[in-house]
Design goal:
By secondary structure, this protein is an alpha+beta fold. Among the domains are: about 170 residues, 2-Layer Sandwich (Sulfite Reductase Hemoprotein, domain 1), CATH 3.30.413.10; about 70 residues, Alpha-Beta Plaits (2-Layer Sandwich), CATH 3.30.70; about 140 residues, Sulfite Reductase Hemoprotein, domain 1. It is about 25% helix and about 20% strand. β17, α13 and β18 form a beta-alpha-beta unit. It is globular.
Length: about 600
C-alpha cells in the first residue's frame, strides 16, 4: 500500500512537462502562505511582472484568484465551508470582512458595492480583495475557524454534501461527521496537497441525493450492506464525474462499499492513486474522469486494491440512489432543494431562503447572521443552489421569523423562475467568462416572472447561466442551460448564449442537449417564453419539461426554441468583454483604475 507513504509531492520525481507543474515543483502547498504574506507586506508591485502567472497560480491554493484584465491587483477570495456549514459567529465575521475589504472602485447596478457570493460548491466568494489586506483578513477569518486553504488549486477542494446533513429527518445516514473528518484529514495534508488537477469530493447520506455526487471526482453515496450478519449503513463509491469544458462525465461505480469508519482511509487511497497516476503532461486531460475513461472501473478498483489499500475492500452494497429526487426534473423531484420550512429530526425546523443567483449584500448578510442567532442556533448552511438555510428554529418562533423583513427579499417560498436561477461570476470579475451573468440572470428571472406563465403543474424550473464552458453554474444539469458565447447582430458584436435543454440529476441523471447556438442575449427571454408555450401545447398529460425533452427529437427541440426580441432590454449585450468592468460609466479598458496600491490608489506606470 502506498497511500500513506511519503512521496515527492513537489517534483514527483520527473521532468516537469508543463509550466504549472514546474511552478508547483518549486513552491506549492502550505509554504505558499509565507510568500503570500511577504508580498502582502511589500505591496502589489513587489510581485515581479514576469512572475505574475506563476504566483497567481500558486495563490489559488490559498483561495485567491486574480481577477480579469483591467482589474489588476484585485483578487477574488474563496472561503471554504465544508459541507456548507457556517457555525455560530462565522456568518457575521464573513459579513464584516466583506464590508471592510470587499469594496471596489466601481458599483454593481443591482448589488451595489460590498456583497457575499454563495457558490454552487457550498463555499463563499468575496471580490475586490487587495493583496495588502490579506493578512488582516486571514486573521479575522481564522479567529472563528474559517480558512481559504485549498479553496482553489490542485488539491482537495471544499467537500460538498447534503446541506442539512445531521438535521434531515429523512436521511439514510448522517454524512456530516464523515465530511468533517475528510476535511480535517486532507486540508493541509502535504501528501495530498499537489494533485494533477483539482479534486472535488461529495458525500451524501440523504434521500434526495442533493450532494450531487454524479458530477464530482469522488462521490460517497448512501448504501447498505450485510457485513458479518448485520445490515451496515455506509457508502458506495463512484469516481470520475464532472462538468467542465465540453467533456462532462457522470461518476462511475467502482463496486466498493465503505463504512463511515473506513471512508477517510479509502478516500485517501483514491486521492493517492490519482496523485500518482493522473496525467501531469496535459492539464486538459488531468482530471480523474480521463483516467477513468482510460482504465475503466474494473482496472481502477484492482489498482486501488492492490497498490493503495491494505485491507480487503467490500463490494458495493445495496444502492439507495433509487430514491434520489434532487434536481431530477421528474414528478418525484418536487422541491427537494431545501428551500422552504422543513421539520428537522429533532423536532425543530430549518428554513431555506432563496438567494437569487447566490449574491447577498453585506447588510443583508449581517441581518442573516442576526436572524439565525435570534431564531435558531446561529448556524447557517449553504446549498449547491446558491441558497442559505437557517437551522434549529423552534416551532414557536417560526411565525416571528417569517415576519422578518429579510424574508421579504429572500423568500422561503419563491416563484419558480427565482427559485430555479443559478449563475456563475461572469465577466464582472472572471478572466475565463465570455459574457455577463449575475445581473443578466437577475433580469431574466424578473422578466420571466412578470411576462411568462409556467404551464399547469410546473412548480420547479431550473435555468442555469454559465459564462463559459467551465460550467461553474452547472448548466448541463438544468431544464434550460445557458452558456456564454459571442455573435454579431445588425453587424455589431454582441454577447450571446447557447441553449441546452433537459438536463437533470435524480435517479437517472442526464446532461442537457445543446439545441441552439449563439442566440443574442436580448432574444433569449423570448426564446424561453416561446419554448414554454410550445411545451405547453405539445406536452402529453402531466409530463414534466424534462420528460417532454427526452421524448422529443433534438431537431424538433431546436425548432421550438424560436428566439425573439421582446420588451426585455439588456444593457450589457454590447459589452463583449471590451471594458475593464461591465457596468463602468466610462466603458474603455483605458479607464481602468488598476493596478492600485494597498489604499486603492492607482499606481503610476513605469513610463
Amino acid at each position: 500500500m502506498r497511500a500513506t507513504l511519503g512521496v515527492d509531492t513537489k517534483g514527483m520525481g520527473r521532468q516537469m512537462p508543463t509550466d504549472v507543474e514546474k511552478w508547483k515543483s518549486e513552491v506549492y502547498g502550505n509554504e505558499i502562505r509565507e510568500h503570500l504574506l511577504e508580498f502582502a507586506e511589500e505591496g502589489w508591485d513587489s510581485i515581479p511582472e514576469d512572475e505574475h502567472d506563476e504566483w497567481f497560480e500558486r495563490f489559488k491554493w490559498w483561495g485567491l484568484y486574480h481577477q480579469r484584465n483591467g482589474q489588476e491587483s484585485y483578487f477574488m477570495m474563496r472561503i471554504g465551508t465544508p459541507n456548507g456549514v457556517l457555525t455560530p459567529g462565522q456568518t457575521e465575521v464573513v459579513a464584516d470582512v466583506a464590508d471592510e475589504y470587499a469594496r471596489g472602485p466601481a458599483e454593481n447596478p443591482v448589488f451595489g458595492n460590498g456583497y457575499v457570493d454563495w457558490t454552487t460548491r457550498q463555499s463563499i466568494q468575496l471580490h475586490w480583495i487587495k493583496l495588502e489586506d490579506i493578512p488582516e483578513i486571514f486573521e479575522k477569518l481564522e479567529s472563528v475557524g474559517l480558512s481559504t486553504q485549498q479553496a482553489c488549486g490542485d488539491s482537495w477542494r471544499n467537500i460538498v454534501g447534503c446541506p442539512v446533513a445531521g438535521k434531515d429527518k429523512h436521511e439514510h445516514v448522517d454524512a456530516l461527521p464523515v465530511a468533517m473528518e475528510l476535511n480535517e484529514e486532507f486540508k493541509g495534508n502535504e501528501d495530498h496537497s499537489n494533485l494533477p488537477r483539482k479534486w472535488k469530493v461529495s458525500i451524501t447520506g440523504c434521500r434526495e441525493g442533493c450532494g450531487q455526487g454524479d458530477i464530482n471526482d469522488l462521490a460517497l453515496e448512501p448504501a447498505t450492506k450485510e457485513i458479518d450478519g448485520e445490515e451496515t449503513k455506509g457508502f458506495n463509491i463512484r469516481i470520475g464525474g464532472g462538468l467542465s469544458r465540453n467533456e462532462p462525465r457522470l461518476a462511475r461505480d467502482i463496486d466498493v462499499f465503505v463504512t463511515p469508519e473506513q471512508a477517510s482511509e479509502v478516500s485517501g487511497a483514491i486521492s493517492a492513486l490519482f496523485r500518482e497516476n493522473g496525467d501531469r503532461d496535459n492539464r486538459y486531460n488531468a482530471r480523474i474522469k480521463f483516467l477513468m475513461d482510460e482504465w475503466g472501473p474494473e482496472k481502477f478498483r484492482n489498482v486501488l486494491q492492490e497498490e493503495f489499500v491494505d485491507f480487503e475492500l467490500e463490494t458495493a452494497g445495496e444502492d439507495l440512489r433509487s430514491e434520489y429526487s434532487y434536481n431530477s426534473g421528474y414528478e418525484n423531484g418536487g422541491h427537494s432543494d431545501h428551500v422552504g420550512i422543513h421539520e428537522q429530526a429533532d423536532g425543530n425546523y430549518y428554513v431555506g431562503l432563496d438567494v437569487l443567483v447566490g449574491r447577498m449584500g453585506v447588510d443583508d448578510t449581517k441581518e442573516l447572521a442576526r436572524v439565525a442567532d435570534e431564531y435558531g442556533s446561529g448556524e447557517i448552511r449553504i446549498t449547491q443552489r446558491q441558497n442559505v438555510i437557517i437551522t434549529d428554529v423552534p416551532e414557536e418562533k417560526l411565525d416571528a421569523l417569517k415576519s422578518e423583513e429579510l424574508l421579504d427579499h429572500y423568500s422561503p417560498d419563491p416563484h419558480p423562475f427565482m427559485r430555479g436561477s443559478v449563475a456563475c461570476t461572469g465577466t464582472e470579475f472572471c478572466s475565463l467568462s465570455i459574457v455577463e451573468t449575475k445581473n443578466r440572470q437577475v433580469r431574466y428571472a424578473r422578466w420571466l416572472k412578470e411576462n411568462v406563465e409556467l404551464p399547469e403543474g410546473v412548480e420547479d424550473f431550473h435555468i442555469h447561466l454559465s459564462g463559459c464552458t467551465a460550467s461553474c453554474a452547472q448548466p448541463q444539469i438544468a431544464d434550460i442551460s445557458l452558456r456564454g458565447m459571442k455573435t454579431r447582430k445588425d453587424g455589431e458584436p454582441v454577447e450571446a448564449l447557447d441553449i441546452g435543454l433537459g438536463g437533470g440529476l435524480g435517479e437517472n441523471p442526464n446532461f442537457a442537449d445543446w439545441v441552439a447556438q449563439r442566440i443574442p442575449v436580448d432574444e433569449v427571454p423570448g426564446a424561453i417564453k416561446n419554448l414554454l408555450a410550445n411545451f405547453e401545447e405539445r406536452r402529453e398529460g402531466g409530463e414534466t419539461f424534462r420528460e417532454f425533452v427526452e421524448r422529443t427529437d433534438e431537431d424538433d427541440l431546436a425548432d421550438l426554441v424560436e428566439p425573439e426580441e421582446t420588451s426585455y432590454d439588456d444593457p450589457m449585450m454590447h459589452n463583449t468583454k471590451m471594458t475593464w468592468y461591465p457596468y463602468a460609466e466610462d466603458d474603455s479598458m483605458d479607464a481602468s483604475p488598476a493596478p492600485t496600491d494597498g489604499e486603492g490608489q492607482p499606481l503610476p506606470s513605469d513610463d
